[in-house]
Amino acid sequence: ILAALGLAGIGGPSVGGGINGGVTGFPTPVPQCPYQTYNGQLTGSTAGCCQRNYCYTPRSTILRSASGIATYQGNWGEYEACSVSCGGGTRKRTRPCIRYHANDTCEHESEQIHRCNVAPCPNFGPWTPYGQCSSTCGAGTQTRSRPCLPAGSTCADDNQGGATQSQPCNNGACPVYSNWSPYGACDAVCGVGQQTRSRTCTAASGGAPCTLPLVDTKSCAVSCGSCQEVPGPCQNYNKCYRVITTQC
């Protein structure tokens, strides 16, 4: 067996469990039966060796160790969570270096760091101009907004607030309108006409102007009763025609 493992002729203490021949070995953390290569570094195990919880190390590894018992590395652990959710972060995984002596070192890396979540973080775009004041006069508010990019993303609030901002605005003192006057008489003598009402407006100095209507009209009707057509005098002697009026 030793010749097959490339260990013949290597001196050193025997390892218990009835293994003889001066083969240097060490206990494995977990029995490897049936034979498996342990992390790519332990080779040459036999079923009988593993049943006694011992495995042999390659000749070159034994020769590199002053103690005759080689260090080796365990399996890689799971990757840790990414350090950031977007914008490029890192995640790490490690594997143990299993030593016989405190000052022993492992030949290969014990830590791997990979980049993760490299997609850019959603960011707010530029602000739009403030919109019109919510009130044409007196106190009101006006609002501006900004998009979250890329479209459809959700942006976190920053030191400038969220997606919208509002500020107070004032277009000056509001004008003062009087009450409407009563509607006047219908302007028709007979049939359908209109009647009108009005109001006044006083604008403050430096305030908002009067913009609302000051006159209001509505339809009205006057009963014609009994009426007759009355011809007027002739208007043109070359071609006489008469204006017909209605009198009620």
TrEMBL record:
Keywords: Disulfide bond, Repeat, Secreted, Signal. Its main location: secreted. It comes from the Eukaryota. The keyword Transmembrane helix does not apply. Pfam families: TSP_1. It is found in: Secreted. InterPro entries: Compl_asym_regulator (IPR052065), TSP1_rpt (IPR000884), TSP1_rpt_sf (IPR036383). This is Uncharacterized protein. It comes from Ciona savignyi.
